[in-house]
């Protein structure tokens, strides 16, 4: 890996393309090195993981709304939507939109945390949608996803967005555009323009994750994926983008990040170096913000020792800066202690999450957030006894580059009404690669079968999983098999019978993605 310094350059000191971050990203994406076996295996895991959480979210309102928007844009060849048969196809940018919301709605798929935060699995819906529309092979798909994960993780390692209240999808737009470029075997010039446009249109604020959090939290990465598809489409037509996007005098760093004096160091693979970044990422066993994963496991472990929770006087969670200020009491968001708060707000309240995990000694993606669950008087009483504090040591470990030392959990001190103190700590979640029960292929399959139960038939589940097992061997035009079809009884009559009737009023998509390989 090579470290690249990225900082503002005034317009009078023209920065050559080869010195720009967008060009360096484009060269990495266009460098088609062989994908290592462990990376292929992990890509398969994450395709399964995305499908699992999408299946569980298909009937949730934000997902239904996004899908209703998508089906107004039928297109041939087009791309498929989670849950529906291959003949029901929409324009790829709208498939990226609908499928992206389905993947993100439950806050239940993969994560990478470093200088900033990310869910790199959000790259998969737009890349898969374009791959289906363009008739690409499984090997092409693998190449595109590996490139997207590499760029996404490297940007997250090098550039902190949240310090300046910029939402983390500003790293996702460029990485998805780069991944689509790698998928389609595009030139560095085309990828360069697409990456810059994707950055330019996906820079939004973190208010989407502050105060009363709305369903936009699920829509935001889908929006970035949709913008990435459109950015590549526009670049394929020969159009340019604002440049240099990161380093320009009026660009991203100058006005939205650290300013003219800031310098960022972004690691990127050398030419010919395999793209391995997906192996640094980790998924979730529990449907909640990643910082809560280890603390849910710790709550389950501590509950027997605490015993009668009515005797708890106070619980203090000593943790990292991120946990304290984003999902803890350091956020100073009264909504995080409100039993009437939205699900999106509750899954960003470690006080609520820890209280419920202590009481139930378990976590469920729906039951743990139900309004009647959040409103239990005993839960509210315990919830309001919990606070977080930043511990410099946990902050240091959070930012450590040593994977054996890096930590996302905390130390919990419970004081009972008789003065007895019970404390314990956990650095990483049980499902983390260095945790007590690291997730492997069998765990991803188990997660999929559990979340798809009653939604996708056992036969269809098996067909989908077998397609993932041979993803590298899938030929051009066979990527539709990486979708799953739901049981007809699962959908309401209106959607099953009416949403896909393709009446004449439906608008058609208008993308220029190449359908044949002659333009690639």
Describe this structure in words.
- There is one protein chain.
- By secondary structure, the protein is α+β, with helices and mostly antiparallel strands.
- The chain contains 20 helices and eleven strands.
- It has helices spanning 21-30, 37-57, 61-70, 92-104, 124-133, 138-158, 169-183, 188-201, 216-236, 252-256, 293-306, 321-327, 343-346, 350-360, 371-374, 377-383, 392-398, 441-452, 458-469, 493-499, and strands spanning 2-7, 73-80, 89-90, 112-113, 117-118, 263-268, 312-319, 386-390, 410-416, 421-426, 507-508.
- Strand 2 and strand 3 form a beta hairpin.
- Residues 496-520 have low confidence and may be disordered.
What's the helix and strand layout?
Blueprint lengths: L1 E6 L13 H10 L6 H21 L3 H10 L2 E8 L8 E2 L1 H13 L7 E2 L3 E2 L5 H10 L4 H21 L10 H15 L4 H14 L14 H21 L15 H5 L6 E6 L24 H14 L5 E8 L1 H7 L15 H4 L3 H11 L10 H4 L2 H7 L2 E5 L1 H7 L11 E7 L4 E6 L14 H12 L5 H12 L23 H7 L7 E2 L12
Parallel strand pairs: 2-11, 7-8
Antiparallel strand pairs: 1-6, 2-3, 4-5, 7-9, 9-10
Summary tags:
520 residues, alpha+beta, four-stranded mixed beta sheet, 20 helices, 11 strands, 43% helix, 10% strand, globular, disordered C terminus
Please give a quick description of this structure.
The protein is of the alpha+beta class.
User: What's the alpha carbon Rg, rounded to whole Å?
Assistant: 23 Å
Shape: globular
Q: Which residue ranges are poorly predicted, with pLDDT under 50 across at least 5 consecutive positions?
A: 496-520
Query: What is the β-strand count?
Result: 11
Strand order of the main beta sheet, please?
8-7-9-10
Q: Termini distance?
A: 28 Å
Kindly report the average pLDDT value.
93
How much helix is in the residues?
40-55%
Structural class: alpha+beta
Number of helices, counting only DSSP H or I runs of 4 residues or more: 20
Strand content: 5-15%
